[in-house]
Amino acid sequence: MADEQKPEGSQVPPPAGGEAAKPAPPKPAAAPAPPKPPAVMAATPWDSDLAREIKERFGDRVGETSTYLGQNFIVAKPDAAVSLLEYLKLEADFDYLVDITAVDWPKRPERFDVVYVVYSFARNERVRIKTYIPEGFKLETAVGVHLTANWLEREVFDMFGIEFEGHPDLRRILMPEEWQGYPLRKDYGILQQDDRWVRENLGIESGQ
Amino acid sequence: MPDATFLDSTELVLNMGPQHPSTHGVLRVILKLDGEKVLGTDCVIGYLHRGVEKIAENRTYAQFNPYVDRMDYVAAISNGLGYCLAVEKLLNVEAPPRAQVVRVILTELNRIASHLLWLGTHALDIGAITPVFYCLREREEALKIFEKYCGARLTTHAFRIGGLLYETYEGFEREVRDFCKMFVPKVDEYEELLTNNRIWKARLIGVGILSAEECKEYGVTGPVLRAAGVKWDLRKAQPYSGYEKYDFEIPTRANGDTYDRYVVRMQEMRQAVRIMEQAVEAIPEGPIMGKVGKVIKPPVGEAYVSIEAPKGELGYYVVSDGSTQPYRCRVRPPSFVNLQALDRMIRGGLVADVVAVIGTLDIVLGEIDR
Amino acid sequence: MFKLLKKIFLVDLFQGLRVTFRNQNPKYIYTEQYPAERPQVAERYRGAPRLNNNPDNGETLCIACNLCALACPENLIVVGSERNEATRRKELTYFTYDTSRCMFCGLCEDACPVDALELTQDFELATYTREGQVWDRQMLEEGPKPTQYKC
After folding, report:
1. Nearest C-alpha of chain A: how many angstroms from B261?
2. Of A79, A103, A84, A104, nearest to A94 (Cα)?
């Protein structure tokens, strides 16, 4: 989230019918110009015992610990993400892995954000762990820490093509197994599909 | 994960679905059987994949709102609430009090509608044909209120970012009160039919046990988690939309089997009525739309907001790059995560229990596949 | 002992049967006799789209502002307009609405500044062809004419 990037390749022309896909420009242009929102997320440092403890423990393997809109997140180095998950589970009671997902920033050298959301029943607290990885980087799997990571990582693999080292069963989960391409990457257009797969398996010409 | 293609003389690989009536949609379960015993399962999902998250990246915030109804179409209003709350969080606005109360009423009504559909179909799977008629009859009453309120019965598009579009119609309070009054005896009726029924008990007790530790390990939430004895409900733990104002209990059970999950959901319906009764008496006057511009353009940032949907924790992780379209909108579907525990729940069980366990997870494939 | 007697005399079965027989009462009939008896849908029902005309002079209310087309998530509305040199106003030339892709979310209706486009209470939209689902301006003004059955 360090730099503002426009999604490229996602702005495909609208399906037949729409003459203009861009919504009308915001009206209050005449009003006194509001302060332009900062291009980076206006996060503030997260000051808590847990954040300090993590900093102490992991040193420079953990980047910023911040809060945005009352939600805390930790930026970890790719190799520290899973050990941080493990640490949080075993020593800080974050025993419920809510979600694993990714965000694609094609213009950044570390192309993907991989985001882990963990929750602690005991503390009633939610923390996000973010890690930035370049394309082709193999992240360590979290299945050894939380079993629920199994399908969630499979979905991230299916949608973004991010591989997880040591995952027991890394297959596509939502798309067909032989599908080409990773649909949630920004360079995959919304109308794009694997024509060859559709032709071979469904016996129809692609409808688009 | 079992090897799905494995087959030899003693073990049988059986395909259940994707067109099986008891898989509640297009779920395909590959069962590895030894006689009647289930040795392992593998779920094949994705038949209903429409790429909702991709669509979100190509629509404006307001335009994406109707699409979320189509994920968990049984509880469309809950989906809409979660999405609206997530974008409101990004915009840092809150819906006005009146909108919040109306939202709570409709969401709880939707919870009842969702649980009723679950009860009817689950009972049908087990072999009790009668409850489905009664459940759909009462669900109809709830759907009528939705239709009168927002003009659609199933995919409602009821809420807008920042509050509500529709003012309550005349007689809304009366109809909700009538529903509450009518509904509690009906729950008693279902319980009369099922709770003590010997076949029902024989089919459900001790089937598909998932302990509290396993629930946490698998990330299972909602009634399944509560049936295992964890008193956790996001409405209490991290209240949203004014849930802290209402007095209700979190029903829990200890064993974590299919029967307990049935009991928990029945109790939840009663609690939902309780919330509605309190909310309908306290609808404040005032505006229904918060301070949100015509074009929704949240500042750069990200937020994860989750609500307690009828199936469990429904989360939205929305990333904004400052444009009118979400840069990324991740949905954390409760059914998807809950379904993962299916293997643990039926491994070692009997093939006839598979249907009971799938039913008790209360999955909606529209949400799993998105 | 009590439990055993309960089991022998099938108490749970009769308990359930009591409920089913109670519901045999004809006043609980819910089924609608659909084609013969048309259901009354709610006032706010979002069904077939309609382009409203001014009831006084029969002219269309649409000002061809294109806001509905922009609001539509599915991009299924196409508005054609032409500037009238005499009045200096934009005038509607054609308006197509693809009901086959419509999900009846009502965003176009909300966007319309003059209440010209409206989702009405007509809900019978079946046609024999796909082309028939794309409604032109005339169809939108007249509305669908479903067959009425007499029983």
Report:
1. 20
2. A84
